Amino acid sequence: MRIVSVTSSAPYDGIPHAGGQYVQKLCNVLRSMPHVSLHVYAPESPMNLHAIANNVEEDRPHLLKGRESIALSFLGRAVSAKARQLAFVMSKVVGDQRLWSAIKNDDALHDDLEHADVVDLQWESMARLAPLVRRYSPRARIIATFHDVDSQRWMRKCERSSGFRRFLLRAAGCYVRRAERRCANDIDTCVVFSIKDRILLEEAGVAPGKIVVVDPPIEFPKRDCNRRQVTSGCVLFVGWMLRPENVDAIKWLLQEVWPLVVDKVPFATLRIVGKDVSRDIVDLASRDGSVEIIGYVDDLASEYEKAALSVIPLRDGAGVKFKAIESLISAVPTVATSVGAEGIGGDDIFWKVTDESDEFAAAMIEALLTDRAQDDALAVAGDIRKRFSLSRFQERVSNLYVPRH
User: Fold this and answer.
1) Which of 219, 196, 192 is nearest to 381 (CA)?
2) At a CB cut-off of 8 Å and minimum separation 6, what does 353 contact?
């Protein structure tokens, strides 16, 4: 069986963002299956060139090269700020035009698509390529994974904007919502990570029978959660800092929430873990001696091992937040916003879910000063580990990609 995967981010060991880690685990599962030949394609980009350098030769993805849209390139260099905003939004909404041209002109991909049994499209931006992919692969099953439902992301950005930008983002959200319905016509199975995202696609007009919920695999080294070496007052934030929603989250935490916490819990420390921390975040954190910039770590499990509390202060974005699942399976008390907690389960599996800065701070203070927070987190961890286990994911992927007849 030949499976052709087209993905925004080429997978490799140590990829710094959760979506890429999901694709890496999926590829590992598919490669482990007997009689499966996996061929991975990704657009040429600095990060994907890095992936090429970090993959063994037989697992290296094929990079797709294409021509940039002349119109978007012109707008992007315009003097007018509004024209530049328009170019940026159009490039995200319409999709990478270079990739469309690459698919039309890449002979290796054409040959793979022609002989493919399954075509796997990762991220909604790739799912929108389904009509074009179908031309070259009319008989294959097309499976598209919506890591996020992009229309929700755009509408959330719209809600927090004003003026011309608000108008632009609302138009983008409406366009993407229609695009989600149109591309699903050429997709056999739409994979999402939560019931919430399933409902969003249904509301966009995607046939319910096409949508399948798959819990992503989140696994850490097996440790006894009863014996975590918790550091008193240690608060953990995890996030890849090239994502704007993570930057917004940590700024909100540092400016609106953290001062309230250290006022009541003077021994509290905040550890910011994640790659590509920007200079403005470093400068903001340096104003308070209780904040530590850790950066990228190879062993994220060791960070959760000592955390007394984990925070997911996201106010923007969409989809299931893998960092929230990681925190819960590690039996760490977790305070989250509604965006940070969405798609995983009821609010009762978190210590607190709130979008108000004073309530967020109060929940953090309470969790740091009571033993009950650790007990409650431990009670939740077992069920979360089973639900998001690698073995359960392997079985789900096997049934989805290589169904038994």
Assistant:
1) 219
2) 335, 336, 337, 338, 340, 341, 347
